[in-house]
Amino acid sequence: MSPIVLFLLITLILLYIGYFFILPILSASNYNPDDDQNILSTDLYKKKLAELNAEFNAGTIEQNEFETAEKELKLQLLSDASVNPDKVYRSSEASKYRIALMLLIAVPSFVVAFYLWIGHPEALNQGVARNNPHGVASSPKTRLTKPVTQVSTSTTAKKTMKRAMPHLSSSNLAKLEEKLKKKPNDPTVQYTLARAYQQRRQYKKSAAMYKQLLSRIPKTHQRGASFANFLASYADVLASSLQGKLDGEPIQIVFQALKAYPNHGMSLHLAGTYYFRKNDYKAALKYWEKLHKLSAKRPQYAQQIMASINLAKQKLAGGSGIISATKLPTTTIKPTKTNNVPFSITGVISIDPALKFTPPANSYLFVFAKQPNGPPRPLAALKISSISYPYHFTLDNNNLLFKGGRSLKDMMPLVLTARITKTGNALDRAGSVTGSITVTNTAHKNVKIIINKK
């Protein structure tokens, strides 16, 4: 039997013996739950989870985005939970508390001493690293209990931090900053702060947290899709701190991600966007065409990539870059039995120069349709990330947010709204810009939506 296996077996036995005596004492204690003012409200967590489920059921977010956001909610619940050290457990039998305290100290102390005697820390770290889906090694000094994650739409189309973590109040943020002062090398606090800063658009502070986390990843783990995910998240925040510019360190991080995993979707998209902005359309096509091949299982996303490819080809051929909507590939999604009317709305979305707005590197475009005097909920919606403008879009029955046999044609007239956001949230919040137009059955082709409002 290896020392590690023996260590784990003895640890389990000792813990079982220790808690066999401790748990009855704790269960008999008088505990006042009102003292736990620092614990994240369970009701708030349930509310956030309910909202997340509602968005998923409505089709606003995808399956992978839902799963990642759900994990982040759980992380936030754990990170905000804290226990007041002044809390006491009252019991009439003081001797039992002394026994419990002795066991609480003795059992972990013995386990640690026993491990240092027969254990092999490097081997244990390697085991943890193999089970860590993000390739971040753990050690007694640099344990990353909750690795930085990045939302994935597929193995080839990663989206950076699509869902924002539950909103942190100023007081909770201040508490996290105090924790970091006390434990400057705590990766969990660094990760939570990185996300909190990004949520508040404090990108420089967020990038600083990512930089510290990156410096602690061993060279042996700087490879694979998981590491590429981490780098893409870092590059996204860093580019946002530079007003959306990918030049310099952000694009170098993107290239590092592609070196770690050449088929990383988000990095391929960012690299193509970088070269497109540099007017190097051949290089942009190299990355986007590879991404398009990898997106075969996601026809709608592949169509968006193809629109960018066509635009780059038009630029390369010396054209104006404005592609006719008739040249855009039609959707390859097979219509369902309930939505089988071949009707679509096509057009181009551009940004008014007078707005003086430059979309960040990883901004998101939402296109949604509502009836002028109907309910606030969209009837159809389209979500795209990391694109260039002007952008040619197609909205058809496959983008309907419900099933019922009706077509977009039956709902005319419709108000189309295009909105660019930094967080991936479709709501009209600070920092987003919008533009709208009304379409009818006789005017739904080659429509022009100009984004001109903040």
Q: Quote the beta fraction.
A: 5-15%
Which bin fits the share of residues in helices? 40-55%
Helix/strand order, N-terminal first:
HHHHHHHHHHHHHEEEEEEE
Put simply, the count of helices is 13
The largest sheet has its strands arranged as 3-2-5-6
The global form is globular
Number of strands: 7
**Class from helix and strand fractions:** alpha+beta
Low-pLDDT parts are 82-92, 120-164, 320-341
Major pleated sheet: 4 strands, antiparallel
Distance between the termini: 66 Å
The Cα radius of gyration reads 26 Å
Average pLDDT reading:
72
Defining key terms:
alpha+beta; three-stranded mixed beta sheet; 46% helix; globular
Could you describe the 3D structure shown?
The chain is an alpha+beta fold. Helix content is 46%, strand content 10%. The chain contains 13 helices and 7 strands. It has a 4-stranded antiparallel sheet, with no helix packed on it. The protein has a 3-stranded mixed sheet with strand order 4-1-7. α2 (42-58) packs antiparallel against α3, α7 packs antiparallel against α8 and α10 runs antiparallel to α11. Mean pLDDT is 72; it is low at 82-92, 120-164 and 320-341.
